[in-house]
Amino acid sequence: MSGKGGRRHRGHHDKDKINLGDKGKEVLENIDDNNIIVQQFRGYAAELDAKHDRYERIFKINRDVGIESKRIIFLLHTIDKESKRNVVLDAAKSRLDNMARTLFKDIANELNGQDAYQFHRAYRAGLEEYVEALTFHEYLQNGEMQDCTKLESALTYHTTPTDSTEQSITRKVMVTPTDYILGIADLTGELMRKCINNLAIGDISSCYQTCNFVRKIYVAFLGYTSVAFSNEMNKKIFTLKQSLTKMENACYTIKVRGSEIPKHMLADVAIVAAEEYATEDDEGYQAF
Amino acid sequence: MSTRITDIFNSFQDYLNNEQEIREQIRVIVKDIEKSARDILMILQNIHNTVYDAVNENIIVAEYCTKAREIFGEVRIQYANLAKVVPNNQYYRYHDQWRFVTQRLCFLVALVIYLEIKVLVTKDTVAEILGVKDNREEGFHLDLEDFLLGLLQLSSELSRFAVNSVTNGDYDRPIEIARFVNELNAGFRLLNLKNDMLRKRFDALKYDVKKIEEVVYDLCIRGLKPSPRPTEETPTV
After folding, report:
1. A123 with A176: CB under 8 angstroms?
2. Whole-prediction pTM value?
3. Coiled-coil annotation: which residues (chain A) (predicted)?
4. Using CA atoms, how far apart are residues A133 and A120, in angstroms rounded to an integer?
């Protein structure tokens, strides 16, 4: 504490000498635990620590959510033949549900009684990833997209206190529509991959189907005034456009050259065509 | 299928529009608050050029404080309006919009309180003067970090004040400020800071402390002020 002052005094033993920093030293030495400022700040420190700790705890869960979601997406990509389909979908479904029951429940508990917006940034990334996995699963299962309310209700928890007959306590993870929409924007990257994979295994019809689905999403994204959009959103729409272009090129190649090339070679040709316009895509998992 | 997507995106658009509307309302109110904060700051700047007058000193300063407090009355009304616009439990959704002006006002309250009674203001007092709640649970409140950032603005203002006090012939003031800012510094050292804005501003506090120490040193060494009692020297050889 007084190290700075002490160094300056080194070698001087004249007690009457005035030194720079004397006042500071004097004040610091007179401060004890009963000092009113010290006591005030003890309280502030406790409050600040509590907030930071909570944030970090949520952030840790967020990372787990992100990692598991990414793995589920990889799992969903392994569907390559009809016989495997149901097994994989069921496995993915149960893992998704499991996350809602465990990891998200932990977040909900942390958020209980708090202003969720204060900690929103801590779990946003993981949540978006989860939305991506969830909607991907939904698309593969039903060829559809569900809306945000279903997810919201899945992440709302009712617990009945064991010691009383009072009504149940509700805790939930706040999902903002923005999170959901950003998750959907990420989904299109996976759908592009899925489309190309389908081509490789010779499932041409679902290629067209997926391409159309992504196009609809793209059109929907275009319907906005860009005022409300963040930089992040604009970047995602740009990526979305790229994915869509790749898919459209692949579909084009299938159409024009489908009759002249044997089916097993068509895939390679179409994929090359798709990649022509593509710069690298950025779908690696990012923690931040 | 496509209607499904359209529905999802339409409701998203509604959500955005709604948010935009609230933000707009907040912006208008925050602008008013900013105006008040500027007015208070201008009044309080007068402390830097008030020539020292041992008899009337307190009266003059008290006058500025009274004027400032009048405007704080308006600020209270403005914050009450703001509290009405911000939906319950969504304080942090829009927090960015008023955090800077709130920090500024925390600083101004702290300065007024310091000039009046020479103590460090507490968070609940600031909350009371601004007409907001002290705790989040109670509604529209004062964020702790905003309050602390406000206090850090106080230290740089006081280091200027110490310098100008000397120019204006008040040699007691810097000694007092030195004590105060050193205590403030000791207080901030009790906090565990993350690598954020607060940390950055806290790192600047030591320069304010140093500046004030230099003023005190100049006064002491020229005999303009009795030297602060030299502390027990621990031999550091």
Report:
1. no
2. 0.83
3. none
4. 20
- Asked if the Cβ–Cβ distance from B230 to A17 is below 8 Å, we say yes
Nearest CA in chain B to A225: B13
Cβ contacts (< 8 Å) between B227 and chain A: which residues? 16, 18, 22
Q: Which of A24, A44, A220 sits opposite B213 (nearest CB)?
A: A24
- Closest by CA to B147, choosing from B138, B136, B158, is B136
Q: Go through A6-34 and write b for each residue having 16 or more CB atoms within 10 A of its CB, e for each that does not.
A: eeebeeeeeeeebbbbbbbbbbbeebeee
| Largest separation between any pair of C-alpha atoms in chain A | 102
Q: Which residues pair with A158 in a beta bridge?
A: A170
Domains of chain A by start residue, with CATH? 26-175 (1.20.58.190), 176-288 (1.20.58.200)
Exposure pattern of B170-199 as b/e (b: 16+ CB <10 Å)? bbebbbbbbbbbbbbbbbbebbebeeeebe
- Can you read off the two tokens belonging to residue B206? 């030591």
User: B120-137, pLDDT tens digit by residue?
Assistant: 999 999 999 999 999 988
Cβ within 8 Å of residue B10, ≥6 positions away: none
How far does Cα A249 stand from its chain's mean position?
Answer: 30
**ipTM field:** 0.84
Separation CA A124–CA A63 (nearest Å): 10
- Mapped onto helix, strand or coil, the DSSP state of residue B181 is helix
Residue A244 pLDDT > 50, yes or no?
yes
Largest CA distance in chain B: 87
- What does the pLDDT read at residue B237? 42
Cβ atoms of A27 and B213 within 8 Å: the answer is: no
Element holding A23 (H helix, E strand): helix A22-30
d(CA B141, CA B99): 11
Buried b / exposed e over A66-92, threshold 16 CB at 10 Å, is bebbbebbebbeebeeeeeeeebbeeb
Query: Which residue in A30, A37, A216 has the most chain B C-beta atoms within 10 A of its own C-beta, making it the best mutation to test that interface?
Result: A37
Q: How far is residue A95's CA from residue B83's CA, in Å, rounded to a whole number?
A: 42
What is the number of alpha carbons within 13 Å of residue B81 lying toward its C-beta?
16
| Closest among A257, A253, A244, A258 to A272, alpha carbons compared | A253
Amino acid letter, residue B95:
H
Give the domains, in start order, of chain B with CATH numbers.
1-142 (1.20.58.190), 144-227 (1.20.58.200)
If you measure CA to CA, which chain B residue comes closest to A38?
A: B187
CB A18 to CB B9 under 8 A? no
Task: Give pLDDT, residue A225.
Answer: 60
